[in-house]
Amino acid sequence: MSTENNRQIKLGAFFMIPGHHVAAWRHPEAEAHSVLDFKFYKKLAQTAERGKFDMVFLADGYAVSKRFPAALEQTVSVRPEPLTLLSALSAVTEHIGLAATVSTTYNEPFHVARKFASLDHLSGGRAAWNVVTSSHDEEALNFNQQVHLLHEKRYDRAEEFLNVVTGLWDSWEDDAFLFDKEAAKFADGSKAHTLNHEGKWFNVRGPLNVARPVQGHPVIVQAGASEPGKELAARTAEVIFTAWQTLEEAQAFYADVKGRLAKYGRSPDSLKIMPGVFPIIGRTVEEAEAKKRQLEELIPVEAGVSLLSALISFDLSGYDVDGPLPELPQLAQVNGGKSRFTLLKDLAEREGLTIRKLYQRIAGARGHREILGTPAQIADQLEEWFVSGAADGFNIMPPYLPGGLDDFVEFVVPELQRRGLFRTEYEGTTLRDRLGLSRPIHPASLQPANIAALS
Amino acid sequence: MSTENNRQIKLGAFFMIPGHHVAAWRHPEAEAHSVLDFKFYKKLAQTAERGKFDMVFLADGYAVSKRFPAALEQTVSVRPEPLTLLSALSAVTEHIGLAATVSTTYNEPFHVARKFASLDHLSGGRAAWNVVTSSHDEEALNFNQQVHLLHEKRYDRAEEFLNVVTGLWDSWEDDAFLFDKEAAKFADGSKAHTLNHEGKWFNVRGPLNVARPVQGHPVIVQAGASEPGKELAARTAEVIFTAWQTLEEAQAFYADVKGRLAKYGRSPDSLKIMPGVFPIIGRTVEEAEAKKRQLEELIPVEAGVSLLSALISFDLSGYDVDGPLPELPQLAQVNGGKSRFTLLKDLAEREGLTIRKLYQRIAGARGHREILGTPAQIADQLEEWFVSGAADGFNIMPPYLPGGLDDFVEFVVPELQRRGLFRTEYEGTTLRDRLGLSRPIHPASLQPANIAALS
């Protein structure tokens, strides 16, 4: 197989410490004690940079789940806050992008705009924001609420939040700062703009107290695959991180979302679709399969059941693990990750899986695609989706760390490079350069008449 | 002069880029264009670490003031967000403490607890939180409010905020994590504690999703010198950053606050008082005085007036700069920094200063103590306050950067070391070790019967 023109795979290194598999920390090679140790993260980020990954990607959540006390003892519930970690990693890397998940549900847009703008400056244009909504009541309880926002309200708030943040990033024009010591002009005040946002969720005046980011705007990443999620992504996202099990589903989603771009005046290239992939790499297929079995056998039952329960927003702890899924609520009643709910319910029905088999299936990839085999077979599976309209790249979720990332960088990346599917050197200087995304033009350059002068 | 026992001066390096003087950016040596450049901050932090400073200290604010458009053009209004910057600096330093200002007025305790706990882990126990309240209406406008909270309400909220944060830091006992792969026990659930805080300002369940910080609690820094500020500090602060012009004022404050500690069961050593100091260093007194004049002459009038107006929470822009201060409101009507208001009003009256003379006086130190002279004279002035019950250390505010810090490290630090007043090597491993502060014991070790088991 080969690709037309120079289109190349984009790669994210999704760090979940000490690995994406729920039992990763029990793996003999996993550094379970390193979950809060900077040296460990530094090594991982430098490995990913050596592998020419586009970015490091970090998920996030705002609670330690207490619903399953046994599971709490069996899984990793403490990790560094992503922006804190990525800021530290920015100082020990030079090229790799830095994507942090920050929720729009329990934050203030001024703070979020400022932190990502700061990271973008300090890293020389490598910041990306994975825009999510929070959907667990246990998170609400840490922020003065009893229950979390309904699905539609979360998206309504997220959209306004995003508008405020991008507006604040444009507080200063790119050439607003003069540094003119003689004329005593540090800044040109006419190039500082107030936002004066008055909305349903937020009133924010601005301007932001950080200059326009190096990238104009840090790269916007989104993950929602529900109807409002897809529409918000089509309007505003530059990278989508999705979860699909089959080529057909991924192709349908890819066509659907890319097809929505034109109505917002966007080209298909302005949005990169990067499904999550959980790779189990062996020197032989047998070795890879043995690795998989080893991890499955390390899953404690309570941890498996609670992970599955969280993913489908339904408590399965009262049911026989070796029986089928019970009758689940209708999709409309689900006030959690709706697309993940559907994906897992369909998977269990399609393959007739018991609760145990289902949690074993998702205890690694958590609903994302699992691929298994030799480096060449892994590359084949990535290439297939890449060339057949299912993906522009992949967010790689190593089963355990650092081994799972080391293997990918050492064996799979060179294979992709040999096939001409992946870069051998970083292009340009910013994450946008690497992802092939253009730098947003400041609105003042687009419509000078519409810009309110500073007053 | 010499000190009894081994009591030594503690030093903070207060970074305000490109210097504390409002005209610093116009100084010929100032790197005005580097305000958002990580390489510049990295060099500064490494210089401070070479000088064996206890900590880097960063102030903060949440607005670009638009009240004085000319001043906006003449001063630096953009800087990196402090926690983002300190996280990055943690990766390129090994010993120096990292103190960030974060307001309790427009934040959520869960986020703040988590970020400082993360920084403390990633830095190996070097984090400190300067707990402040926000007092400008222009900040309120960026957070959905029209006006900022009244002074008493800000302190009420600050105290509850601090209680929640320290409670969240104690979510996990120090030995809660077992990493026991064989027994499938990552954590001991009985050592995870819910906070279940239900207060006037916040309802926060917990636990925090970060392990107990390396230092137990990151070091608590405060700056308020008003009556509620002093009381909150006596109960909770471990470092106080204050602003005093005269030895007598500083001694009175020192005795006052240290005298309040006993009623909270605290020893005098458990709180370090570190006034801000703005040092102008020359090879001769004449050279230092020339440096001072040079900076004063670089202050644009509008910038000087607006700085003074902001510090006293009163708009002086309509008044003759070569006339006296107008009649100012009574202290009770001031809803800003009350102690700074009193300090500046008294200073102007005592010395009969015009508005211009007053802003020239405060355009550098901003109400803090200015000291000037040769390295030996600078050391004399620090030693005098240190040995006479006015200070445990100082927060050094270089007039311009990097030069002002370079001079301090190269000439003043060795002088202090020769006198036995300052360390020549870092003690211990954490910021607490350097400051001589004990590590907070987890409440479960103090009162086992009072701890709610995880359920």
UniProtKB/TrEMBL annotation, chains A, B:
InterPro entries: Diverse_substr_monoxygenases (IPR051260), Luciferase-like_dom (IPR011251), Luciferase-like_sf (IPR036661), NTA_MOA (IPR016215). Residues 21-389 form the Luciferase-like domain. It is an enzyme of class 1 (oxidoreductase). Its EC number is 1.-.-.-. GO terms for molecular function: oxidoreductase activity. Keywords: Flavoprotein, FMN, Monooxygenase, Oxidoreductase. The keyword Methyltransferase does not apply. CDD domains: Nitrilotriacetate_monoxgenase. PANTHER family: ALKANESULFONATE MONOOXYGENASE-RELATED, C2H2 FINGER DOMAIN TRANSCRIPTION FACTOR (EUROFUNG)-RELATED. Belongs to the NtaA/SnaA/DszA monooxygenase family. This is LLM class flavin-dependent oxidoreductase. The lineage of its organism: Bacteria, Bacillati, Bacillota, Bacilli, Bacillales.
